[in-house]
Amino acid sequence: MTQNALLTRTNLRTPRAAAIDGILFSVLAVAAFWLLWTSVPADPHEPGAWLGTSAGSVALCLNLVPFAGIAFLWFIGVLRDHLGQREDRFFATVFLGSGLLFLGMFFIAAAVAGAILTAFVAAPEQLVNSATFHFARAAAYNIANVYMIKMAGVFMITTSTVAIYTGFAPRWLAVLGYVLSALLLLGSYYIRWSFVVFPLWVLLISISILATNLQRGGIRS
Hints:
Layout: H1 3-12, H2 15-39, H3 55-83, H4 89-122, H5 124-127, H6 131-166, H7 171-187, H8 197-215
């Protein structure tokens, strides 16, 4: 392996890479959720009048989703590589599985919402308040608000546990992760702003990793 290749691998394995990807995911996810929050009514039984007034904002939200997902995938990969041999197999499996399930359902919910927009452009009068709209709206709502959020909570639990055992993040952030994950697992259905809990927690983890890395002069621990 050449010296350039070794340097490249070292740079990719630094915690700073995970921190930057986590911050990017957090910013994009919060922006996407905020656009969705301000554009689509919370009631899953609404008839779809927002399609005529807020379709552009929802389309922008959906365009942010793939980039947020890519950043989150890099965040998982670089963080696992940073843990290296310290990573327990059981928690590694749950950590990776819950992260990938969250990401998959994130994309599926966005795809269903995109299908609603496409169908509205093709036949606006027939779609609004139709059975097809209500089915697609309910599918996207349940995927995001029930299953995706629950997987985010599982990811927070496993990440917090790994943080306590390996010390890659402060203990108070791990404890906060347990508390917020309980909120997502038990109360996400009743709290609309629960969508932003996960990306904001990832943002705190990423900032902590980045600050630790900068204090150590960019040298991997």
